[in-house]
């Protein structure tokens, strides 16, 4: 799957992943009105508005970006209707031939990790019948419990050609409270990065990158550069560009000499572009899909300047 992701990045000449992190205040009034009239101001109505909004975003960008990254928390807050919408968003993205990175950030002991993995990237066994439930191509994980919490996912990656992005250096402002602690003469994020690299050594594809990738925040450019040196065979999922404050210049260190090695996330900078003053003058609220497309194209041009 890592080779398929890189193939698509090369084909599109665009290392952008669109984060599908909808919030009710991002949903245009006409979509909310239609969904609330049909289902009421209920979790079902809200979940349906997220689904309809996400499908239009996908329609607007599917031919220019390689992947989307739906954030499960935004959907599952609405219960089973939210999870239904999450699953349908994934199905629609795959219908549009996009790679799907499920942003689930799970972490638990081995037996529980196995259940999570069965549902999200493996298969669930119902008395001998196997079913694929969520259908993500990649998922994000938290490594705090160590290798025994990662191994079940790794097994399914091998069997089903799926991938992982494991938290190493996150983009939030206070990530350093834990991730920059010194342990045995090195920072904790460096130690975790080395472990993730080791865990993925037997899963390396044709481009020299492993199915086990790392989440590395763009808001910490020096740490990103250091991790690229420590993890030459680990592909990075990089949040923090745009709305969180990171610029294209901050990303120079996460790419390799071929311009590969990372996929850069933008969420509200694209999906809520119609609210941004930069695009407001050209796009009305009902044209939020066109605004998202323009923002994605602008991001592509910005990243091309760094890669080239």
Please characterize this protein's 3D structure:
The chain has 308 residues and is α/β, with parallel strands linked by helices. The chain contains 13 helices and 12 strands. The protein has one domain: Aldolase class I (TIM Barrel, Alpha-Beta Barrel), CATH 3.20.20.70. Helix content is 44%, strand content 17%. The strands form 3 sheets. It has an 8-stranded parallel beta barrel with strand order 1-2-3-6-7-10-11-12, surrounded by 8 helices. Strand 8 (182-183) and strand 9 (186-187) form a beta hairpin. Helix 3 (43-61) packs parallel to helix 5, helix 3 packs across helix 13 and helix 6 runs parallel beside helix 7.
CATH topology: TIM Barrel
Mean pLDDT: 94
Please give the CATH architecture.
Answer: Alpha-Beta Barrel
CATH class: Alpha Beta
Tell me about the largest β-sheet.
8 strands, parallel, barrel
What's the SSE pattern?
HEHHEHHEHEEEHEHEEHEHEEHHH
Structural class: alpha/beta
Percentage of residues assigned to helices: 40-55%
The side-by-side strand order for the widest beta sheet comes to 1-2-3-6-7-10-11-12
Beta-strand percent range = 15-25%
């Amino acid at each position: 799957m890592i080779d398929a992701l890189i193939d698509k990045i090369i084909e599109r000449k665009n290392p952008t992943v669109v984060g599908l992190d909808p919030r009710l205040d991002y949903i245009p009034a006409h979509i909310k009105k239609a969904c609330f009239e049909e289902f009421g101001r209920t979790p079902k109505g809200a979940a349906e508005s997220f689904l309809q909004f996400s499908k239009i975003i996908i329609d607007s960008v599917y031919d220019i970006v390689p992947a989307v990254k739906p954030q499960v928390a935004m959907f599952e807050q609405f219960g089973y209707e939210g999870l239904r919408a999450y699953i349908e968003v994934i199905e629609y993205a795959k219908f549009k031939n996009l790679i799907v990175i499920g942003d689930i950030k799970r972490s638990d002991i081995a037996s529980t990790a196995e259940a999570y993995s069965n549902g999200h990237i493996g298969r669930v066994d119902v008395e001998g019948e196997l079913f694929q439930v969520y259908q993500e191509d990649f998922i994000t994980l938290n490594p705090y419990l160590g290798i025994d919490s990662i191994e079940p996912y790794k097994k399914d990656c091998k069997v089903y050609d799926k991938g992982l992005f494991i938290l190493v250096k996150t983009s939030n402002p206070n990530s350093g409270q834990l991730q920059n602690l010194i342990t045995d003469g090195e920072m904790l994020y460096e130690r975790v990065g080395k472990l993730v690299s080791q865990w993925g050594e037997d899963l390396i594809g044709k481009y020299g990158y492993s199915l086990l990738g790392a989440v590395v925040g763009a808001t910490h450019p020096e740490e990103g550069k250091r991790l690229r040196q420590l993890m030459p065979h680990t592909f990075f999922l990089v949040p923090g560009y745009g709305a969180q404050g990171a610029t294209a210049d901050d990303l120079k260190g996460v790419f390799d000499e071929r311009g590969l090695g990372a996929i850069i996330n933008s969420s509200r900078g694209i999906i809520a572009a119609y609210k941004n003053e930069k695009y407001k003058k050209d796009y009305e609220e009902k044209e939020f899909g066109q605004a998202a497309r323009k923002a994605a194209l602008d991001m592509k041009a910005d990243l091309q300047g760094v890669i080239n």
